[in-house]
Amino acid sequence: MATAKKNTTPNPIDALAEARALADQREAEHEQAKEAADELFARLDRGDASVSGLDLATAEAEIKRTEHLLSMARKQIPAAERAVKLYEGQTNPVLAEYLRAIIEEHRFNFGLFGVPIEVVPQRPEKLTAPAAYLYQVEGADYDTTTGHMTGTAHLLVTVPADGLDTIREACTTGIYKLVHHAGHAEVRDSLVMQPDHFVLSVYLKNLEPPMPVISERSTATGTTLAQRLGGLAALRSKQWIDDPRTGRMANTHTIMSGKHAGEVVSQARDGDTVRRKVRVQFTVHGIDRNIDFPELATFVDRAIEDVKGTFSAGLGRVESAKVTSREPAKVNAEVRAVISGGTIARPALAVTAELILISKAAA
Questions:
Q1: What three-state secondary structure class fits 105?
Q2: Beta partners for 192?
Q3: Residue 103 to residue 265: CA distance in whole angstroms
């Protein structure tokens, strides 16, 4: 009975690790060869006549031999890295999966209601309309300092020809609206049109992924997170008011925030999941009028709900948030009037909040 031959070819990730290990080995051998030659010349300088010409010739030849081997080993690494990028695009298409989630949630925006959507390892050879396929040619690049990802995903859509242009326009508009203009990533696109399908290649720069990969040595402090919370509270305060500067009604913020500060107070790892506890402080106060403490507190509470699930560079996704203290305060606020300005002491709320942010540990 024939026995199946075992596949001993390493996967690209292992092959890259082996290529790098070999380059390190060759570099060590080259350094050893140079040190051995230096030692021979040092012995000659001390008058050691036992060092022969053959010894010197052998040492010099060994330097050249190890230098050549080192050069060859280093040249193998870029090819191995390219193979890993291709392999990761096929086995871990995180950008394609991200776009699929966006499209699935907003099918009408993309004109793909009722069209099957599938993430595939590579571009399919046979197309059966109607269908939409998402795939990556290369893996994503991870910025483990911030948690952002960058790379390209491809959307191939095949539908009857009379609806192709309409869906192509809807897909392009949908991606810019729900990703680029929503602030989740910078988007650039390119398009290839065929009679029965199109391929929309979407380059995503600094994408805020659902589960960011962040180094445990991140130095992010949380100050930006405090600014975001204050900004969300200000957004919650928007209302139609009579703007004294224009004499017209305007939908504008009625409070503002300041004195933002933040710090990571603890960090814990469970498997490859990292949770950071971040403490932030900020103040909120009325802009053109005094706002009492209960109303300020209401805006802050709403901001606490709004911040859950948001991305914070270098820290992760907000898993939970709570206010730990609210203290009455006073701030010197600018008075914006039609004729004259100045400052006035306004009632303010000094807020302290604690947030738990989740991320995946960088390898």
A1: helix
A2: 199
A3: 38
Angle of helix 94-105 relative to helix 164-175, nearest 10 degrees, comes to 110
Burial class (CB in 10 A: 0-12, 13-18, 19+), 257: buried
pLDDT digits (tens, 9 = 90+) for 320-329: 999 999 988 8
Residue found by looking up tokens 């040595």 in the block: 217
Q: Residue ranges per domain, the chain?
A: 12-89, 94-207, 213-361
Phi-psi region of 355 (alpha: psi -120 to 50; beta: other; left: phi over 0): beta
Task: Count CB-CB contacts under 10 A for residue 86.
Answer: 16
Long-range contacts (CB closer than 8 Å, 24 or more residues apart) made by 37-46? 37/62, 37/63
Contact between residue 208 and residue 317 where contact means Cβ atoms under 8 Å apart: no
* H or E element at residue 110: helix 107-110
Q: What is the pTM (predicted TM-score) of this model? A: 0.74
- CA 216 to chain CA centroid, Å, is 15
CA–CA distance, 30 with 161 (Å, rounded to integer): 63
User: What is the tens place of the pLDDT at every residue in 65-96?
Assistant: 999 999 999 999 999 888 888 888 888 899 99
Contacts of 210 (CB under 8 A, 6+ apart): 98, 101, 317
| Token code pair at residue 116 | 């099957």
Query: What would the two tokens of residue 283 be?
Result: 């103040």
Pure H helices in 248-326? 293-307
94-207 placed in CATH 1.10.8: no
Amino acid at 362: A
**Closest to 283 measured CA to CA, from 314, 260, 302:** 260
Q: Which residue has the tokens 């898993």?
A: 319
Q: Which helix (H) or strand (E) holds 151?
A: strand 149-158
